[in-house]
Amino acid sequence: MKADRSVSEINYPPGDLAIWIFILAELTVFAIFFAAYAFTRLQHVELFNEYQLTLDREAALINTLALITSSYFVVRAVSAIKVDDRRRCVYWLLAALCMGMLFLLVKSWEYVHHYSEGINLSSNIFYMFYLSLTFFHFMHVIMGMVILVAIAVMAARGKYSRQEHTGVESGASYWHMVDLVWLILFPLVYVMR
Amino acid sequence: MKRLSDFIGIRPCTLIYLLLISFSLATFLVGKLGFSGLGMSLLVLLLALIKGHLVGSYFMGLGGVRGVWRWPVFIWLFIPGILIGMAFYLSYQ
Amino acid sequence: MQYQSQAVAKPYFIAAIALFVAQVLFGLIMGLQYVVGDFLFPEIPFNVARMVHTNALIVWLLMAFMGASYYLVPEEAETELYSPGLATLMFWVFLGAAALTVVGYLLLSYSTLAEVTMNKLLPTMGREFLEQPTITKIGIVIVALAFLFNIGMTILRGRKTVINLVLLLGLTGLAVFFLFAFYNPENLVLDKYFWWWVVHLWVEGVWELILGAILAFVLVKTTGVDREVIEKWLYVIIAMTLITGIVGTGHHYYWIGTPEYWQWWGSIFSAMEPIPFFMMTVFAFNIVNKRRRDHPNKPAMLWALGTAVMAFLGAGVWGFLHTLSPVNYYTHGSQITAAHGHMAFYGAYVMINITIISYAMPLLRGRNAANPVKSQVWEMWSFWLMTIAMVFITLFLTGAGILQAYLQRMGENPQPFMVVQEQISLFYWLREIAGVIFLIGLVVYIASFFVGQNDPEATTAS
After folding, report:
1. Portion 131-190 of A in contact with B at CB < 8 A
2. Pick from A9, B50, C129, C397: CA 20 to 30 A from residue C194's CA?
3. Interchain pair C279, A16: CB under 8 A
4. pLDDT-derived band at C461, boundaries 50, 70, 90
5. Is C71 strand, coil or helix?
C-alpha cells in the first residue's frame, strides 16, 4: 500500500515536459480534424456511408493490431530499461519498429489500391477527409519511427540506464500518441455509420 | 487492474494489451457484419474512447500521475468524443 | 567578441538599420497617401512607395539575418569564419544591388526599369514583393550562395551545435525557396500558387527557424541556462513550426482556382500556427526565469522577451483572426491583412534582428558585455515607443479592416471600394499618427548608439 502511494506522488508525466507539450499540440490538430469529419459528415450522410464501404476494413484491422502491438512492445522496452536491461530494451524497440513497418506497408498498399482506381483528394469530400486524415497520421507513424530508431541507437550505445531514461520515456510517449490517434481514427472513418 | 493481472499471473500491461486487442476485434466485427445505426455507432465510439483511456492511463503511464498531468489525454478523448457523438446523434434526427 | 572574424557582422547591422529607416520613411509617405491621395505625386506614386517600403523591409531583414549568422556561427562553432573577406565582399555586392534597385524604382518608371534590365529574357518582375529586376534577383542568389558556402564551411569545420544546425537549415531553406521567384508560369493560378512558396514558406516556415535559432543563441548567452534545455525546446518549436507552417500555406489558396481541399487543409493547419509561437513565448519566459546570472545588457533581454510576446500576438493571434476560410471569405486582402502583416513582421522579424543587434553591437564596438547605462535607457525607451506605436498601428488597421469588410462586403448594400476608403479615413489618420511615433522611437533607437559613449560600462549591479 505504501509503495502504491509513492507512485501516485509523481507530478510529471513520463518523459520530458517539452515532448508532452508537443504531443498535446499534435493531439489538438487531430481532435479538430476528427470533429471536422464528424460535422461535415452530417451534411453528406449518404455520401459518407456509401464511400465508407469502399475502404478495406481488413487492412485497417491489421494496422490497428500492428499499432497496439508495437505500443505494447514499447511499454516493454521502457520496463526493460527501468531494470537496466539495455539489450532487451533495444530488442523490444526493434520489435516495435517492425510493427511500425508493417503498418506503413499495409497502408501504402491501400494507397496504391486507391490510386490505381483514380481516387484522389478532389474525388469527393469523403475521400478528401479519408486521405488527409490517414496521410497526416501516416506521416506521424514515420516521424514516430524515426524517434524510435534514435532512442534504439542511443540505448544500444548505452546512453540510458535505470537512473536516466527520460529519452526512452519521451520517445515511448510520442509513439503511444501515434497509436492513440489511430484508435479513434479507425472506428470513426472505417466503422461508424 | 493490478489485482486482476496478479490473479491471472500476467503483467498488467499484457492484460491491457489483450483488452485492447479484443476491443479492436469487436469494433472490426461490427463493421464486418454490417451493423449500423445510432446505437451501434455510439457503442463503437465508446469502445474507442475506453481504448484510448487505457492507452493513456497504462501505456503512457498517466494513470500513475498526480495533478493536472493526469488528465490531458482523458480530456482529449472526452471533447472530440462528445463532438463526434453529437454529430452522429444529429445525423439520425 | 570571441573571434576576430565576427567583426564582419558590423557593416551588415549598420546597413540593416539604415534600410530600416528608409522603410519607415516610405511607410509614412504611403500612410499619408492613403488620406492625401496626391501627396508627392507624381514624384513618388503610391505603388512605388509601397514597393520601396516592402522591398526595403525584406532586404534589411535579410541583411540583418546575414549579420546575425556571421556573428553567431563562429561563436557557436568555436572557430573563425571560413572566409571573412568573402563576407565583406558580399556585403558590398548586396548593398550595391539594393541601392541600385531602389534608385531604379525611384528614378525610372517600372516598365522602363524592366526594359533596361532585360526582364524579357527571363521575366520575373511585376509580382508583389518580388518586384526586383531579374538581375537583382540573380545577384541575391549569388550573395545567398556565397553566404551559405561561408557559413556552411565554418560549421563543418567547427563544433556542430543544435543552434547552428537549425540556423543553417533555415538559411538553406531561405535560399532554396527563393528560387521559385524565377518560376513565372503563364497560368495565373499556378503563378500565385508558387509565388506563395517564396512568400509564405519564407515567413511562416524557414524564417521561423532562423528566428528560433537567434532567440536561442541570445538566451543561451544572456541567461547562462544549460544548452540542453534550450536545445530541447528548439527542437519541439521547429517541429511544430514545420508541421503547421508547410501545410498552412493552404490559407493562401482559398478561391484562387486551387482544389477545394486547400480550404480544409489551410484552415485546420494554419489554425495551429499560433502554437509554435505560443511555445516560443513560454520557452523565452521559462528560460529567463531559470537564469543563472543577470546579464548587464538589459535591452537585449527586453528585446528577446518582446520578440516572444509580439511574435505570438502579431503572427499568432492576428494571423488566426482571418485564417479560417469562412472568415477569410470576407476579410481577404482587406486592412485586416495589413494589420496582421505589420505586427507580425515587427514582432517576429524586426524584433529578433534588433535583439541580436542589441546583444552583439556593444561587443562588436569593443565593450566587454554591455553599453553604458544611459545608452541602455535610451534603447529601452525606443523599445517601448516603437512597440506601443506598432500595437496602435495594428489596432487602427484592424478597426479599418473590420469596417471595410463590413461596409464593402457584408451589409445590405455593399459599397464600392473607394467610397468605403473615404469612410474609414479616420482610422488611416490615426494610423499615420502612430506611425510618426514609431519614427520617433526609431530615432531614439539610433540615438542610443551615440549617447553616453564615454560613460563607464553598465554592470549587473546597476
Report:
1. 169, 172-173, 176-177, 179-180, 183-184, 186-188, 190
2. C397
3. no
4. low
5. helix
Nearest CB to A32: which of C239, C240, C271? C271
Q: Confirm whether C253 is domain-assigned.
A: no
> Which chain C positions have a beta carbon within 8 Å of A26's beta carbon?
243
Contacts of B30 in chain A (CB under 8 A): 191
Task: Map out the domains of chain A as residue ranges.
Answer: 16-34+56-191
**Cβ-nearest to A176 among B28, B30, B60:** B60
A22 contact B CB<8A? no
Residue C372 β-bridge partners: C457
CA angle A121, A123, A125 (to 5 degrees): 75
Q: What is the pLDDT of residue B66?
A: 87
* Overall average pLDDT of the C82-111 stretch: 95
State which residues form the domain around C19: 1-160
Cell numbers at residue C249, please?
Answer: 500555406
The mean per-residue pLDDT over the stretch B66-88 comes to 93
Residue C351 has pLDDT above 70, yes or no: yes
- pLDDT per position as a tens digit, B1-44: 777 878 888 888 999 999 999 999 999 999 999 888 899 999 99
Closest CA to C26 of C94, C98, C99, C102: C102
C5: in domain: yes
Give me C320's grid cell: 488566426
Q: Are A102 and C235 in contact (CB under 8 A)?
A: no
Is C372 strand, coil or helix? strand
**Would an 8 Å CB–CB cutoff place C279 in contact with chain A?**
yes
Please name the amino acid found at residue C304: A
Q: How far is CA C117 from the centre of its chain?
A: 27
In a domain, C84, yes or no: yes
Flag whether the ipTM exceeds 0.90. yes
Q: Is residue C29 part of a domain?
A: yes
Average pLDDT, chain A: 92
**Dist CA C371 CA C67 (whole Å):** 19
pLDDT tens for each residue of C108-163: 999 999 999 999 999 999 999 999 999 999 999 999 999 999 999 999 999 999 99
Do the chains contact at B44 and A173, CB–CB below 8 Å? no
Amino acid at C83: S
Report how many domains make up chain C.
1
What's the pTM? 0.90
The arrangement of secondary structure in A16-34+56-191, i.e. its CATH architecture, is Up-down Bundle (1.20)
Chains B and C share 3 or more Cβ pairs within 8 Å: no
Inform me whether the pLDDT recorded for C462 exceeds 60. no
Q: Quick check: C236 contacting A, CB < 8 Å?
A: yes
Ordered DSSP codes for chain A? -HHHHHHTT--S-SS-HHHHHHHHHHHHHHHHHHHHHHHHHHH-HHHHHHHHTTS-HHHHHHHHHHHHHHHHHHHHHHHHHHTT-HHHHHHHHHHHHHHHHHHHHHHHHHHHHHHHTT--TTS-HHHHHHHHHHHHHHHHHHHHHHHHHHHHHHHHTT---SS--HHHHHHHHHHHHHHHHHHHHIIIIII--
